[in-house]
Amino acid sequence: MNGYDLYHFHNGSDMGSWRFFGAHPAGEQGRKGTRFAVWAPDVKSVRLSGSFCDWRSDALFMENRGGGVWQLFVPDVSGGELYKYVIETSDGRLLYKADPYAFAAQCPPDTASVVLEKSPYKWKDSAWMNRRKKAEHFRQPMNIYELHAASWRKDAQAQGPADRAYYSYERLGDELIAYVKDMHYTHIELMPVMEHPFDGSWGYQLTGFYAPSARYGTPDDFRRFVDRCHAEDIGVILDWVPGHFCVDAHGLSEFNGKRLYERGHHPNWGTCRFDFRRAEVRSFLLSNAMYWIEEFHIDGLRLDGVSSMIYLNFGVEDAKIKEYNPWGGEEDVDAIEFLRTLNKAVGENCPGVFTMAEESSAWPMVTRPPEDGGLGFHYKWNMGWMNDTLEYMETDFPSRPEFHGKLNFSMMYFYSENFVLALSHDEVVHGKRSLIGRMPGDYWRRFAGMRALALYQMTHPGKKLSFMGGEFGQFIEWRYSEGLEWFLPQSYEAHGKLLAFNRSLNALYKKESALWQKDYDMDGFRWLDADNSAQATLLFTRSSKNSELVVLINFVPECYDSYRVGVPSAGVWQEIFSSDEPDFGGSGRTNPGALKAERVPAHGCNYSVVLRTPPVGGLILKKRKV
Questions:
Q1: In what order do the strands lie in the sheet with 595-596?
Q2: DSSP E strand boundaries for 162-247
């Protein structure tokens, strides 16, 4: 790292600090070895300990380069060697720390960093990458399958405890990619695959920000997995955690014997909050985001817990310990500036890559440009839509009319942000029940409710995200230590038919541009009847440049044989999709024939058709081409 790079590292604007810090194969004076570098200011010394020196703590002292940067070249150290830094604190303690910039780590519960040779991997996704640069992702279909790699499936042949029977990146590549392609999802979103010590954190409490978890294989194995996804036209989104980190002794916590990377603790999670006031911490995280994009060709980053970053007192109830910024507010102005810098950097340097915020407060302009006062994200999870929709779907059928506003309210604010409609892992844990477990009624009505929910999500404006297991109606909550209950769709007809329904709905979504081309344009959606609370029915249109669809969803079991629906124009309309198809587990109340529009006004339209409505279900109409 030259003086120019150090300058940017120390002022918080470095986007490539991993190229210097960490363990890098190198040569000096004709000898091959590894050069190590770490940032640890205000300490007496930094030593290198590892398998190459019998783990002695007094054999290899690193050189102080100034500014808290320590460096050492060790000859004859090659890939696969284990190491840690031994930090001698100002008060004489010795702390054994994993490398913050380690590119590989031991599989937990072991905690050492691993020297990694320069990757020989040759990418084969140039066609995908070139398309990505030119694509307007706002105007493309985006239907995300969110999954936890450790529990999507378990390896029945693996040795050791069942909860650690992880699928490898290679086996995920074999089975997951084929499944996602067959189900017609456009993207996968992986819950954090960076190295973490405790499975129960789901990957959200990290020790190895630069290391793909060894649970599933090597970094090159992960590269190959992403490459294979791209070969099948599947985008890869990573959950990324720049808000906090775990307190484990070998991690970033009190790295130099006192707070260095951290500002304090999150009372809700027992983790350390990153200190965005410190420039080197901003460089560490900014570089980390670019590392995953550049080194692993990641297509999008979903930032976890943005609310916990932008509010100084997130989760703090005791007024005596609350913090305030220089203007007396509770906003973390340094974290906000970091987010703006990050999003601007991704936008300017990584064409086609997007960032997505999980932000649960009412913070304005999350997806608006920084120059306009926004945070600069491309997308934001719509937590309001999720909460209102699930609360409505949990309500028993006789009471639904009085809660109709929970269905139509989302369009009152929808165009304030670029929203993603997310039904994520957070909604099927901690006693909330599975999605199908929330549905009222008997067995049939529960599955019908799942179909109605999915149809509503897929036809509502915004990109889509669903968590694994929901597509076939797993009744138990998600358990991180167990694989999904894949026997259900294979052994039980209702689950198999729900899976077939979601496969067909996903395929229809990709095919019909009206469902995604104008997600964020006000002329892409129009209410025909938003206020039919008495019949618990929604009626609206979705439009693209060349197509228009009419969507009807009935959220109660009562249905009608002659229901008049306004349509935008004359001609012959056709039911192109119904959630009530018998093949999907429905009752068969469909409209298979031609629906010729009559010049009878309805729902603000000059023309209308008469059709049968499904119980607890929906349908989509499209005009036939002449």
A1: 525-532, 537-543, 548-554, 617-623, 572-578, 595-596
A2: 187-190, 194-195, 208-212, 235-240, 244-245
Query: Which among 527, 437, 420, 516 is positioned nearest to 474, based on CA atoms?
Result: 437
| 358 labelled catalytic | yes
Does the domain spanning 522-623 belong to CATH 2.60.40.1180? yes
Phi, psi dihedral angles at 568 (to 5 degrees): -65, -20
Q: Inter-axis angle of helices 219-231 and 169-182, to 10 degrees?
A: 20
Q: Which residues contact 493 (CB under 8 A, 6 or more apart)?
A: 585
CATH topology for 137-513? TIM Barrel (3.20.20)
Mean pLDDT of 27-51: 96
Name the 3-class secondary structure at 626: coil
Q: Residue 2: what pLDDT?
A: 62
pTM to 2 decimals? Answer: 0.96
pLDDT in tens, 61-108: 999 999 999 999 999 999 999 999 999 999 999 999 999 999 999 999
Which among 304, 359, 471, 512 is annotated as catalytic? 304
pLDDT band at 4, cuts 50/70/90? Answer: low
Mean pLDDT of 404-415: 96
Which CATH number applies to 3-114: 2.60.40.10, 3.90.700.10, 3.40.50.300, 2.102.10.10?
2.60.40.10
The residue annotated as part of the active site, out of 262, 275, 358, 388, is 358
* 175 is known as an active-site residue: no
